[in-house]
Each structure stands twice: as C-alpha cells, then as structure tokens.
Design goal:
By secondary structure, the chain is an all-alpha fold. It is about 85% helix and about 0% strand. The radius of gyration is 23 Å and the shape is globular.
C-alpha cells in the first residue's frame, strides 16, 4: 500500500508540473512561430529533428541505466547502486564524444545537398545545427543523473526543473521577438544555454542528496557490470535507433519531397502531440520505477498487474484530452496560431490517433525491459520499425499527399502491438487473450463511443465558441460514462475508487 501511495503522490506532483508547463509551452510555440515565421520555424524543426534522429543513444542508455538502478533498489543492494552510477558516467562520457563526432560528420553530409533549405538561410541553419549538437552532447552527459532521479522517484525535483525549463523557454521566446540579430541563430543558441543550466542544477542536487552519486571510479568501477550494462544497452540501442530513425526520419522525407513549409506543419503537430501526450507519459514516469522494482523484488504478478492497469489508464488519460481536441481542432488552431501552416490539422489528428494506438502496449515494453531479456524483442521490433519510412518514401515518389505518411505509421503501430504482446507472453507470462479483452477491446470501444457522442453538435451547429464549449461538456460526460461502464471491469473500479480516495 505504501508503494501505491508513493505512485499516487508522484503522479499528483507530475500533473501539477504538467498543468503549468503545458500552458507555457503552447504559448511559447505561438510566440516562437510568430517571431521566426513559418520558414525559419520549419528549419528549426527540421534541424532539431535531424539531431534527435542521430541521438538515439541517449534514450537507450537512459532506459538501460534506470533499469539497472531501479532493479538494484528493488533488491536493496546499495553497493551496486554506487557501481551502476560510476559505470554509467564512464559510458555516457564516451557516448557523448562519439555522438558529437557522428553529428559533425553527418552535418557536412546533410548540408551538402540533402536538406532542402533556401540558400540565404543555409548559414543560419548550420548555426542551429551546431548549437543543437552542443546541446545534445550536454544532454547525454546528464543521463546518469536523470536515471538516478527517476529510480529514486523524486518527481518533485523533476517537476521543479520542468517548470524552470518552461519558464526559461518562454523568456527566450519573448527575447527573440524584438531581437536585432538573426532570430533563428539567437533562439538556437539560448536553447543550448538552457541545456547547460539544467544539467548543472541536476548534477548539483544529486551530488548533494544521493549517496550513490559520487565519483569513485577506482573503488566502484566494475568491468563485469560495464559489460552487462553495455550488452543490455546495445540491444536497447537497436530498438531506440530504429524507432528514432523511423520517427524523425519522417521530417527528412517530408522535407525532401515537400520543403520546409510542410516541416513547419509537422513541427506544430509534434508540439501538440507532445504536450497532450504528457498526461499519459507523466503517469508512466511515476509507474515505471515501480514496475522494475517489483520485478527486482521477485514479484512478477504485481509487475504484470501494474503494467496492464497502466496501459489502460494511460490510454484513458490520453483519450480524455484527445477527444475534444480531435473534434474541434480547426477551431482551436484558429484561436492559438495567427498563421496555421498547411496540413497542420490533418497531421495533428492522425498523429494523435497513432499515439493512442501506441499507448495500448507502452507499459508492456517496460515489463519486458524489467525482465531483462530484450534481445529477441528488440531484433523483431527493429525489423518492422523502419518499414513505414521506406513505404512512405515510395508512395511520395508516386505523388501521394504528405499526410499519407501517418496512415502508414498507424498501420505499423498495430504490427508493433502484436509483436509486443507475443514477447510479453513469452517472457512475462502475460495472458494475451485476457489482455485483448480487458485492455484493447474496452479501450477501443470506449474511444469510438466517446468521439461519436462528442461529435453530435457538429451536425447542428456552426464552428464557434458555443459549439466548442458544448463539445467539451458532452465529451467529458461521454468519457466518464464510457470509461466507467465499459472501460473498467469490476476489480478495476475498486482500484480507481481507492486511488481517488488516496489522492
């Protein structure tokens, strides 16, 4: 029960943080898009996407380090936590140097005819790339501290730093509005400065508060642990590499066929999806350490139970916000942005549906990671991950519209669901039929009913504030009704009631 209370507490803290950062981030995007213009905003999204595509190492190593740290905490092994931190520092220092070298080499290739950028903005785009590469280097160095904070479940620190980051980004957006120098270059430079400042804050806090965060390589460095973490991270890297290539390769493909203006539409869609997905990601951040620690303590039944319930609750959290946004997206964009890039609405709608599909199995991937046997899972998942990018490229050559890319990726999200269910059954003893009935069927039916009922005002009313408010009210009522009576089974209703009382 104490663990459940801790998850509830951490979730509440993260939602308080989210309530602040989402509003600030959305307003910041409006200011930045207006200040930079569609073309420069598209360049920033394009170059930033290239950086993210090439820094998949960061995500895979962070997941590996957190897995080992949380597992050791579940076992109660303090000495091993010291070893994990020191080994991860060595790993990430090496990775940071390697990635920086890769980025510099790739930069010359990308800017030598691959990226479609106006000649008069090529120099500014190159500066954006260099600042983004520097920020990436610093971010990778900070991964061991992120892993410690997550394993320690210190979501208050994460929340405070998140708010500070959002406020600083808004301040930068306001600065560039009236800047006399090149706004795009100034914006990218200040964003890199934020990365350095946040790393300094995390490092200072961790070294002061957590005993495992001490540099003692001679005492705590373990070659066997280094090899173990490297092997685990290697397979995790394979999955992260293909995932990042697939997701951020979309930006390159769209740029090659349609130019930076379409990248601007995609950048806005990613921003909206990212902010709305925070609601489910927040819960997963609080739940992930609990899943791994349960496996570390030998309680696989609790791990599976938490994963199943987490998938369902995460889906419903997304659904609560997605339904009214999907219905009234054109009206919302007209209120939010002064200049809405072409394809923004359809990009955003399709991306949100894709995120819903992926949410159905995201916690099962955490369970497979907790068990530690990820080799075959990552091999098969990686094999399918790159297919949609290649298929989209071929379709664009035959003249298909840019939004077809999202239909292709949605199809392969379903394939990823099947792959994850297979390996969760094989390694985590998940009952697939029970999962389909309890999670997938209930979630999909609840979503279809909620969006169908919420769309009824569109049949009789024109777009406007009154219809938007009516859609919002009906969506909330339909959400509560469908989720409670269809989404949750009897046992889960008891858990939800306990959760609400605890909250």
């Amino acid at each position: 029960m104490r663990a459940a209370h801790r998850v509830v507490k951490n979730t509440g803290i993260l939602y308080a943080r989210m309530a602040i950062t989402v509003v600030l981030s959305l307003y910041t995007t409006r200011v930045v898009l207006d200040a930079l213009g569609v073309e420069d905003f598209g360049i920033f999204s394009l170059v930033g996407g290239v950086i993210a595509m090439l820094t998949f190492l960061n995500a895979s190593m962070a997941a590996a380090t957190q897995r080992f740290m949380s597992f050791a905490q579940g076992q109660g092994d303090e000495a091993r936590q010291h070893q994990i931190f020191n080994v991860s520092v060595v790993l990430h220092a090496g990775i940071a140097l390697i990635v920086l070298g890769i980025l510099e080499i790739a930069g010359f290739m990308l800017f030598d005819g691959v990226l479609k950028i106006a000649p008069d903005r090529m120099q500014a785009a190159w500066m954006v790339y260099q600042f983004a590469a520097a920020g990436t280097f610093i971010t990778i160095l900070g991964v061991p501290y992120d892993a410690v904070i997550n394993a320690r479940e210190n979501m208050l620190l994460f929340a405070v730093l998140g708010v500070i980051e959002a406020v600083l980004k808004l301040a930068i957006a306001l600065i560039i509005v009236n800047a006399a120098s090149d706004k795009l270059e100034l914006y990218s430079m200040l964003m890199a400065v934020i990365t350095v400042a946040l790393l300094a804050m995390r490092a200072a806090y961790c070294h002061r508060r957590y005993s495992e965060c001490k540099y003692a390589l001679r005492r705590y460095f373990s070659r066997s642990l280094f090899n173990e973490m490297s092997a685990f991270a290697g397979w995790s890297l394979l999955g992260s590499a293909t995932s990042m290539l697939a997701n951020y390769g979309q930006i390159l493909v769209l740029n090659i066929f349609f130019g930076a203006a379409v990248n601007a539409a995609q950048g806005v869609a990613i921003q909206i999806s990212g902010q709305l997905s925070v609601f489910a990601g927040t819960m997963l951040r609080a739940l992930n350490p609990f899943i791994i620690k349960s496996e570390g303590a030998g309680d696989r039944r609790m791990m599976i139970k938490a994963s199943i319930f987490g998938s369902k609750v995460g889906f419903f959290l997304l659904m609560f916000f997605y339904v009214p946004v999907l219905i009234e997206m054109p009206y919302l964009f007209s209120l939010w942005l002064k200049n809405v890039p072409q394809y923004t609405v359809i990009f955003c709608r399709l991306l949100l549906v894709q995120k819903l599909l992926e949410q159905l199995f995201i916690t099962l991937a955490s369970s497979i990671t907790a068990v530690g046997n990820i080799k075959n899972y990552q091999q098969v998942n990686s094999f399918f991950a790159l297919f949609p990018l290649g298929i989209s490229f071929l379709l664009f050559q035959y003249g298909f519209a840019p939004y077809v890319l999202y239909y292709v990726f949605m199809t392969f999200a379903v394939i990823s669901l099947v792959v994850t269910l297979f390996f969760a059954n094989k390694f985590c003893e998940l009952q697939v039929l029970s999962y389909f009935q309890s999670v997938i069927f209930r979630c999909v039916i609840s979503f279809l009913l909620a969006i169908g009922i919420g769309s009824l005002p569109l049949l009789v009313l024109d777009s406007g504030l009154f219809r938007f408010m009516l859609v919002g009210g009906i969506s909330i009522l339909s959400f509560v009704s469908t989720v409670w009576w269809i989404g949750f089974n009897t046992a889960e209703k008891v858990l939800v009631k306990k959760f609400l009382r605890t909250l």
